[in-house]
Amino acid sequence: MTTLTIPDERIKGVSFDADLLTVELMDGRRISTPLAWYPRFAGATIPELQGWEIIGDGDGLHWEQFDEDLSVEGMLRGFPAAGFRTGVKR
User: Which CATH homologous superfamily contains domain 11-77?
Assistant: First the structure.
């Protein structure tokens, strides 16, 4: 018999380095996305980026200073924020 385990995708913690935003989920997974995906963070320092708060039931992040909200779902699906440009010309 197989037991279905539903992953707990609520946010447990957040960290940053020079290039990445990393979110740790309650189920132990970590999602890393490029900071470049979030144009509102351009030029932000690590201490400024650490001004986040968990929103919803743990499924999103909010930065008051940047007026930015990010969702776990968007990070899992690989969706950058609106306004991100890949540099690829069409």
Answer: Uncharacterised protein PF10387, DUF2442 (3.30.2020.40)
Length of the chain: 90
- Residue 21 CB-density burial (10 A; 0-12 exposed, 13-18 middle, 19+ buried): buried
**Tokens standing for residue 9:** 């995708």
User: Which residues have C-beta within 8 Å of that of residue 26, sequence separation ≥ 6?
Assistant: 8, 9, 10, 11, 12, 58
CA–CA separation, 11 vs 29, rounded Å?
Answer: 10
Q: Which two tokens stand for residue 30?
A: 């970590």
Per-residue pLDDT reduced to its tens digit, 6-39: 899 999 999 999 999 999 999 999 999 999 999 9
